[in-house]
Design a protein that fits this description.
Layout lengths: L1 H10 L16 H6 L3 H10 L33 H55 L1 H5 L17 H28 L27
Length: about 210
């Protein structure tokens, strides 16, 4: 075969054409993918035929007849003015809701305050009525001692008698102390400097203990 071709070249005649194998050119990406194990397995699965499962690349776009399909025009917001107006309306509605909540809270607080004042007024009115009915206020003004603070008269009864005896005993003992001190000052009853006679301290009669 080689001899025939060589002879044909020497004689100037074209050689006979034999079986030609045309190879599809391979890109760099395909050559690099053959070096990666996962890509190599995917390529082999993709090239399988007959009863084997075929590998298909999954795309991000859904078919037109599927439930997840959406046109490209609907993927993005096209009406910017309407979107901005919606945001402004939302902000205004939110501010109005805040102001409404403040008004409601203040009204409830004011109503609660007046309700509390009304309850306090009713309790005070009831307390004053009970004091008038049971004489509690009159008892609070009652003197702690059994005598009249205006007329300075002792009360009738055993309490007044005991208080009268205590006061008279106090005055009697004080007079005795004053007389004892006067006697200690001089034994003659005269002032040693001026020569005048001392006025003796009056001593009241000894009080009588009450029988009560």
């Amino acid at each position: 075969m080689y001899g025939t071709g060589l002879e044909a070249l020497k004689s100037g005649m074209a050689p006979e054409l034999g079986q030609v194998v045309n190879l599809q050119p391979v890109s760099r990406k395909e050559r690099l993918s053959q070096q990666h194990r996962e890509d190599l397995e995917k390529m082999r699965l993709r090239a399988r035929r007959e009863k084997f499962c075929r590998y298909e690349e999954g795309g991000i776009e859904q078919p037109a007849d599927s439930l997840g399909y959406i046109p490209e025009a609907d993927r993005f917001t096209t009406d910017i003015a309407a979107a901005e107006k919606h945001e402004r309306d939302h902000a205004i509605a939110r501010q109005q809701q805040i102001q409404y909540n403040k008004r409601v809270n203040r009204a409830e607080a004011e109503e609660q305050r007046w309700r509390t004042l009304e309850i306090q007024h009713q309790m005070e009115t009831q307390r004053m009525a009970n004091m008038r009915d049971h004489g509690t206020a009159a008892r609070s003004n009652k003197s702690s001692m059994p005598y009249n603070p205006i007329s300075l008269r002792y009360d009738d009864g055993s309490d007044g008698d005991r208080l009268r005896y205590a006061d008279e005993s106090l005055r009697y003992r004080s007079a005795l102390r004053a007389d004892h001190l006067q006697q200690r000052m001089t034994s003659t009853g005269f002032n040693p400097i001026t020569g005048e006679a001392y006025n003796k301290v009056p001593i009241p009669a000894a009080p009588t203990r009450p029988n009560c």
